[in-house]
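To close the section, here is one more complete example, presented without commentary so you can practise reading it yourself. The ligand is PRP.
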Amino acid sequence: MASRVLVEVAHPLVRHKVTLLRDAATTTRDFRQLSSEIAGMLAYEATRDLELETVEVETPLERTAGWHVSGKKVGVVPILRAGVGMLEGVLAMIPVARVGFLGMYRNEETLQPVVYYSKLPGELAEREILLLDPMLATGGSAVDAVRICKESGARSVRLLSIIVAPEGVAALHDAHPEVDIYCACVDRQLNDIGYILPGLGDAGDRLFGTR
Ligand code: PRP
Ligand code: URA
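Output:
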């Protein structure tokens, strides 16, 4: 039951792209592109154990054995706003996944998450839910997002985050130890206003060019 799994995807391409993503000089357009590409690679790792069934396929030359993904269906749930930047990359890997949205932002003073929107896919209990949020800072948003998914029937949730702080990992695993976390980098710490160091700044603002 208490698995507390944290997978840091240390692939050279992921490391390269995360470094570009952190760079304050990276443009909004490139930030969007990089977020999507990194998310695709996190999804690749997070779906390693998807079940397969054998099928037959007719190539132009002969019939041969192949595989289809079977078993659990996938639901992808980006947390607004910044999680939206990861959606396209994940759907490029899993085009048949159903998509839901959770809208939440952090109150900048209390750092507590405020939920303002929820629209989740049907048949949640039968789905592997991939929650998308590029930043796991205090963990408040992710803890609430998982709680909402579970209250709506989800039985299996994984979190895909580009950068995580140790504080956020501990908070999420204390609240929901069965939620596996897939990230591109575990950073050093939070600063005194809840930003990840070294981090990449405000992911939503950098993604959408706001502020
Ligand atoms: C950011 C980020 C996470 C949250 C992480 O969202 O995308 O959702 O902060 O912080 P936490 O782990 O301390 O909860 P933000 O509140 O900035 O909203 P936005 O994506 O709409 O900009
Ligand atoms: N949200 C962000 O966008 N960046 C952080 O460093 C922490 C929370």
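Once you have examined the tokens, check your reading against these statements. The two ends are 42 Å apart (CA to CA). The longest helix spans residues 28-46.
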